[in-house]
Amino acid sequence: MEKLIITAAISGAEVTKEMNPAVPYRIEEYVREAGLAYEAGASIIHLHVRWDDGTPTQDKERFRVVMEAIKAKYPEVIIQPSTGGAVGMSDDERLQPTELLPEMATLDCGTLNFGGDEVFMNTENTIKVFGERMIKNGIKPELEVFDKSMIDMALRLNKKGYIKSPMHFDFVMGVNGGISGELRDFVFLRGSIPSDATYTVAGVGRYEFPLAMAAIIDGGHVRVGMEDNVYISKGVLAKSNGELVEKVVRMAKELGREIATPDEARKILGLAPRK
Ligand code: KMH
Ligand code: ZN
């Protein structure tokens, strides 16, 4: 079985310091959380950035500063900026980090309810524009799918040339408005992607670790982090993103699955070797 790629989604756009004080807002906090996750075994950092007061932003310069600060200390790690940003941001706003030519970025493959009155908008045309931008800028998309229909959308746009093969999916499961985090739904998604595709699974809230276990057994990859879940166990806040990654590493070791370094993750995902 391939080595396990662990992605740490260290910040997100919705989770706040009130939910867990370890959620990073300031540059040094991003470096601390990315570093703890990397040292624990994460090879990819999925990144949303905020201003110092915690307001989410897709500002290109803020991304540049945060990414450079992380890279200065941890040059090997893969940084995967979000192009989802926060609910309500415009497409142009969301696309800004793609101008920094990261190795990877997320590409959200459909619209969904996001709790209350919130709608996370990703029309077919938006997905096409984002897909074209990533091809043009040599960025490998992580196809974020919150439901089965979004896999079907990605497959259609792959046929039309907006997304290249082999595709890499992220099953985000358990969002209020998306597919549940139940095992039968994981099996459904997992069975719906092409045989040459790779996937990672991001279980939201209480689904984080059960779905990590499923992916470890199945040969898939795992995303954990404060964006998806702030608890290390029921009712106990995680001290850091590193602690969440450590738990996945322990689970993988128990099951005999080795952990990929960032350079090994690059090979598995077909990214260019690090210069
Ligand atoms: N913050 C969500 C609205 C992504 O990173 O691409 C979207 C999101 C997806 O987190
Ligand atoms: Zn995200």
Sequence-ordered SSE layout with sheet pairings:
Elements: E1 6-9, H1 27-40, E2 44-47, E3 49-50, E4 56-57, H2 60-73, E5 78-81, H3 91-95, E6 104-108, E7 112-113, E8 119-120, H4 124-136, E9 140-145, H5 148-159, E10 168-173, H6 183-190, E11 198-203, H7 208-218, E12 221-224, E13 231-233, E14 236-237, H8 241-254, H9 262-269
Parallel strand pairs: 1-2, 1-12, 2-5, 6-9, 9-10, 10-11, 11-12
Antiparallel strand pairs: 3-4, 7-8, 13-14
Helix pairs in contact: 1-2, 1-8, 7-8
The structure holds (5S)-5-amino-3-OXO-hexanoic acid and zinc ion (ZN).
Written overview of the protein:
By secondary structure, this protein is of the alpha/beta class. It has a single domain (6-269), classed as TIM Barrel, CATH 3.20.20.70. Helix content is 36%, strand content 19%. It has nine helices and 14 strands. The protein has helices spanning 27-40, 60-73, 91-95, 124-136, 148-159, 183-190, 208-218, 241-254, 262-269; strands spanning 6-9, 44-47, 49-50, 56-57, 78-81, 104-108, 112-113, 119-120, 140-145, 168-173, 198-203, 221-224, 231-233, 236-237. Strands 5-2-1-12-11-10-9-6 form an eight-stranded parallel sheet, with helices on both faces. It has a two-stranded antiparallel sheet with strand order 3-4. Helix 1 (27-40) runs parallel beside helix 8 (241-254). It is globular, with a radius of gyration of 17 Å. The model has no long low-confidence stretch (mean pLDDT 98). The chain binds (5S)-5-amino-3-OXO-hexanoic acid and zinc ion. (5S)-5-amino-3-OXO-hexanoic acid is lined by residues 13-14, 82-84, 86-87, 106, 108, 120, 144.
